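Example 9 (inverse folding). The structure is encoded as follows.
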């Protein structure tokens, strides 16, 4: 269909001539609309990927890539099992932990917390919490001293600083002559961390593994093992491998399962955002239809002459398909270039606008992420480009079909 004649005439129809400036302006506007639409889609998806990556990385600083436990919630043979897991290819480090819930009380304030008992030296190998310590050190969690490390927001809500005392109330109860009474234990705040994620900064407390075993009556037992892998992207494969082999009969979870609701919500949000932006792009692509319909109407006499000279209906369709395809191609190409450029440098652009206007879009006192993160992913670029170009090609079908239906006699009657 795209023979040299159709390409030549299609190119002529897209070029400006003095007495046909209006059509060239409409063509440029249609191309610009396509380019802006593609740029917007790629940029927004890059920013969403950036936020997802930022939050995911902050989660992975605090959680294990894979966790192993018994279905009862208690692991007795954890030392031997940990050594066997450590020998597995792809496993970098293994650390035991105790997971329990409790309440912290100080000066009339009460907060529910997730208490995690850890071995400080082993914990440093499976998480990056030591890098997020604002005061104190994870090594201060020494057995028998009953020290505690709190998230920054949790410490602020309870009015605590390093060196202060806080009471931990556990669900376990003591039997006294007066009946059942909750178990209370005074801890000294030895450290404060800030992970940049409210789930942990506002609800996590760390204590020594030995202290946790005494407090929660788990002598010689732990809740499970935390695994760090050489590549966290292989967590799902490692979970399947372990659960079907060495750890058959144990409860094995990967990091995606721990926060699966959050990751699922982000994926749904990303798809819906792409869909909404693509609808806006389709509206911009309709300019191609209106432009080609105007061109067909204006070129009816030219079409009629070509038909009388022997041009077939397919040739006429090819001419207008070529014109619309060229607009779609160059519009998509410009959009991809603009999207990639903006997606890679959106943080610099935002900083420039903030400096120009004297404002801060993401106030660090309000948002944990104060800089606009981006993560340009090439699959998003290719999908956007192919989808955009396909829509542009589809938009040319009706005008080109209409052009092929022009009757030479009717078109030349009043010429």
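The amino acid assigned to each position is listed next.
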């Amino acid at each position: 269909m795209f023979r040299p004649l159709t390409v030549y005439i299609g190119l002529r129809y897209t070029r400006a001539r003095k007495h046909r400036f209006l059509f060239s302006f409409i063509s440029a506007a249609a191309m610009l609309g396509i380019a802006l639409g593609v740029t917007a889609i790629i940029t927004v998806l890059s920013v969403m990927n950036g936020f997802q990556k930022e939050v995911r990385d902050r989660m992975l600083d605090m959680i294990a890539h894979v966790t192993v436990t018994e279905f009862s919630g208690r692991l007795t043979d954890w030392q031997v099992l940990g050594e066997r897991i450590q020998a597995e290819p792809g496993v970098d480090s293994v650390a035991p932990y105790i997971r329990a819930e409790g309440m912290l009380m100080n000066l009339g304030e009460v907060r529910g917390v997730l208490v995690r008992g850890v071995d400080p030296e082993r914990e440093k190998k499976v998480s990056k919490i030591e890098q997020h310590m604002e005061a104190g050190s994870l090594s201060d969690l020494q057995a028998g001293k009953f020290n505690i490390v709190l998230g920054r927001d949790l410490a602020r809500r309870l009015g605590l600083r390093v060196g202060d005392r806080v009471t931990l109330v556990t669900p376990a109860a003591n039997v006294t002559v007066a009946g059942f009474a909750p178990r209370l234990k005074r801890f000294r705040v030895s450290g404060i961390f800030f992970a940049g994620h409210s789930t942990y900064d506002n609800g996590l407390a760390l204590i020594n593994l030995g202290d946790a075993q005494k407090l929660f009556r788990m002598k010689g037992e732990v809740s499970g093992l935390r695994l760090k892998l050489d590549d966290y992207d292989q967590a799902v494969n490692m979970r399947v491998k372990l659960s079907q082999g060495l750890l058959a009969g144990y409860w094995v979870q990967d990091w995606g399962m721990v926060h699966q609701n959050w990751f699922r919500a982000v994926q749904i949000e990303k798809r819906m955002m792409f869909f909404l932006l693509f609808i806006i792009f389709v509206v911009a692509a309709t300019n191609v239809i209106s432009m080609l319909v105007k061109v067909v109407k204006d070129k009816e006499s030219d079409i009629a002459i070509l038909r009388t000279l022997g041009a077939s209906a397919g040739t006429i369709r090819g001419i207008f398909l070529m014109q619309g395809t060229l607009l779609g191609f160059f519009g998509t190409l410009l959009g991809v270039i603009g999207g990639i450029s903006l997606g890679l440098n959106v943080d610099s652009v935002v900083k420039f606008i903030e400096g120009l206007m004297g404002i801060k879009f993401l106030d660090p006192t309000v948002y944990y992420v104060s800089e606009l993160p981006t993560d340009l992913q090439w699959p998003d670029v290719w999908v956007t480009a192919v989808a955009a170009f396909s829509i542009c090609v589809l938009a040319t079908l009706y005008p080109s079909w209409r052009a092929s239906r022009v009757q030479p006699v009717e078109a030349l009657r009043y010429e």
